[in-house]
Amino acid sequence: MKQRLDKHFLLNRAFGGTLLAIAVPIALQNMISFGVAVMDSVMLGSFGDVAIAAANLGGQPFSILMSFGFGLSSGGSVLIAQYWGKGDIGRIRKVMRISMQLVFLASLGITVVCLLMPEGILRIFTKDEAIVQAGAGYLALVAFSYIPYSLSNNYMMSLLEKEGVPTHFVEELSDRETLVKKVTIVPLEVIVRNIAAGSFSKRYGVEEGTELSIPTIEFSLKNDDLGDPLINDYHALAINLCTKEELETIKKYAFAVNDFMKAYLLKAGVILVDFKLEFGKLSDGTIVLADEISPDTCRFWDVKTHAHLDKDLFRRDLGGAEEAYQEMMKRLFGE
Length: 335
Description:
The chain is of the alpha+beta class. The chain is built from 13 helices and 9 strands. Strands 3, 4, 5, 6, 7, 8 and 9 form a 7-stranded antiparallel β-sheet that branches. It has a two-stranded antiparallel sheet with strand order 1-2. A hairpin with an 8-residue loop joins strand 5 (211-221) and strand 6 (230-231). The longest helix is centred in the N-terminal third of the chain and has 33 residues, at 13-45. The radius of gyration is 23 Å and the shape is globular. The protein starts with a helix and ends with a helix. The model has no long low-confidence stretch (mean pLDDT 77).
């Protein structure tokens, strides 16, 4: 009996260590998600009970979509695990692609319904008209975020993997959740510029829109309290933010991302002005692209009119940010 217990997988130290390595990050993620929900309730509490109820109600359609995405990803994970054991990367990518397509169709359907009839959707959950009216505005607003972020980020990450730039992306779990590899972020913000704009123009007195002779790369210390100050290679090495080899790898990947994205976006009639990247290290020290690539972290201009298709519309209070993000989605995905 004792011998049987000793061989039981639950009492195996190696298995227990692996189980904890997987379970603890998932538990922490759930705790963080719960914490965000609690903070939402605290902040909304100052606006009264109707605001709290309306926000919670407005999240119901997303919860339904989450359930669908979770079920789909759970089923897909079984197949992915099997193919991983066989070393069949091609079939893993196929399963991920099909899962992503199905989640996209589901999120598209829910987004359209929420935009066309937000009050009707909310009346399914409550008959209180005050809550319905308050929640309808919230639902119509957040519905726009369901598709663009997940697709632009996950799609670009997948393409970069194919171009030889390793990323932290694993798979899309839902329209607002992505499974990524655990990394330790290198505390550097990496900015690649092709055209003078924003702080670069102000700092160096170069007219915005001036095409640079060569792409440039800048590093900022990732520290909100210090205002993310600019630093150079020697600073990064002197304060041990990374090694010389890691810094060279980051540069190589950053310029590779730039070359790929410039050519890819140009086909969609978009100029890549500049963008910000962050990199992380896997447990074995491998440098990979992390964080996100989206209109929030890039400057996109229309190739003909130079109209902004990025977050500058919000930063500069120009209006039309929502429409610009939708336009980027249409150009990239033909939707």
